[in-house]
Amino acid sequence: MKLTWLAPAALLAASVSAQAAEVSGSVTMTNDYRFRGVSQTSGDPAVQASIDAGFDNGVYAGIWGSNVNFGDSDNANLEVDYYAGKYGDLTENIGYDATLYYFQYHGYTDGTDIDFFELDLRLSYKDFTALYAYAPDYINSDQDYHYVALDYSTGITDVVNLDLHAGYTFGEYYEDLDAEYTDYSIGISGSAAGLDLSVAYLFNDVNGSKTDDLDDNTVVFSVSRTF
User: What is the dihedral of CA 69, 72, 75, 79, to 10 degrees?
Assistant: First the structure.
């Protein structure tokens, strides 16, 4: 799959090039890279990094990467995500964020291609955020994928937040597998000594074996540094 969105993204970048860009990056370490409730590292730790550029008009773009391990001897070992989007306010209390992602996976020894595009649409109201994600050709399968989620995050002290999450995965790809599922998490997060810290308990109703470390209920720790 080619990065066909880079051409319009380049035009978008050119249209905002006259504005001052704020560039930032981050490094994260976690005991398990979970994506929508399912481990991307077979329950093993991950090191992740990103670099982002944002503009005053709400336009942004970036690259994010992490090690991955889906449990097969010839599978991917690196995920690289490219994204561009725009955020802003609809009213005093309601905000939006629209992001186009390209998920790219490296390391398959058999030539497997599971790269795919996804569009994420978010609406936020006070402490709540609603997400709808759509991929028309999920993991290059010719089948679509949908994800909806609701998150709630609020301060319980001056430095600690309570974070709640519920999400639902569905679409043609999961319907054919009879594998639609819901994922949940409850956790706390905060900052100390220049680090962003979080711990959460993740659980789900994924059908199938719990022995492969991909969908076990678990506690996930992470520590990040933004610069």
Answer: -20
